[in-house]
Amino acid sequence: xxxxxxxxxxxxxxxxxxxxVVALRGIDFEMQRGEMVAIIGxxxxxxxxxxxxxxxxxxPTAGKLVVDGLDLLSLKGQALAEYRLKRVGFLWxxxxxxxxxxxxxLRNVTLPMMMAGVPPWRRVxxxxxxxxxxxxxxxxxxxxxxxxxxxxxxxGLAVALANRPDLLLADEPTGNLDRASALQVMDLLQDLRQxxxxxxxxxxxxxxxxxxxxxxxxxxxxxxxxDLTHGSDNQPRLDESGRIQLPEQVRAQLNGxxxxxxxxxxxxxxxxxxTEQADDTAALLQEMLPQDAPPQKRRFxxxxxxxxxxxxxx
Length: 314
Ligand SMILES: Nc1ncnc2c1ncn2[C@@H]1O[C@H](COP(=O)(O)OP(=O)(O)OP(=O)(O)O)[C@@H](O)[C@H]1O
Ligand SMILES: [Mg+2]
Known about the structure:
Blueprint: E1 5-16, E2 19-31, E3 36-40, H1 47-54, E4 62-67, E5 70-71, H2 77-87, E6 88-91, H3 95-98, H4 105-115, H5 120-133, H6 149-160, E7 167-171, H7 179-196, E8 199-204, H8 207-210, E9 215-220, E10 223-227, H9 248-253, E11 260-265, E12 268-273, H10 277-288, H11 295-313
Parallel strand pairs: 3-8, 3-9, 6-7, 7-8
Antiparallel strand pairs: 1-2, 1-4, 4-5, 9-10, 11-12
Helix pairs in contact: 4-5, 4-6, 5-6, 6-7
């Protein structure tokens, strides 16, 4: 069976004033039907850009992007609008982006179906079925403002699934929720995935949420990095004394450096080959120099000063 998502060397560059911002620099990625994948990465990594491309909200600058057999680069006009309305569902971090404030939960869920031309009785039945599936059958007439954040995201899920898409794209779906509500939304995602046979791609900063996926990928500076999937064979384990044995592919990244620096970041722990001793000394020396003088003169002054000090101590 062909994959649900196929990305080949996908590049996205934005023109800002006169220069280019490259948000994605050659993404190679595949997702199978029914899979749930989490993409984790820091702010500005390109996570939302990737979801926007997959959802047909933006077009790649270069590369190949096929979703469910549709080549998104050649999809235009009505066909693209149909794709966005029927083939893919979105859940955003900001509840306001998922729901219209003046419509009840039920009328929020019927809206995408109305746009798709579904007859009134069918859209109400489907909306009730979906609101029941997200556990809100007793809240159908409430407007978003009188629902909790977690409940609003659950209505958002019902809206996203209204036109029976096969693919659900979720951009930080639990980013604005407390822990308990976030976990409920994650459980619900799993439940809906089984029930409606969904393929889910979720973007998050939060490793605890990412762990609910079958596969966890990292995105940094517009490039996909290591597969962090739990339980996969290439994962190092931490022993009781705090030692880890890094897999070969990670060691290769560290270029055989004798020492590595460890940096704790919100999304995880970053290992970097440490700069050479000689470089450190040079940097230290540079710091000692008066910063306003041109380089040669500075060095000359420093050595003169050192020389003077030697004479004084002699
Ligand atoms: N419409 C745009 N015009 C210009 N630059 C953009 C645009 N959208 C995104 N970018 C740039 O592309 C890069 C990736 O942005 P993106 O929003 O995809 O990051 P992100 O990983 O979703 O970050 P966050 O976690 O903060 O949401 C950033 O440098 C951003 O400034
Ligand atoms: Mg984003």
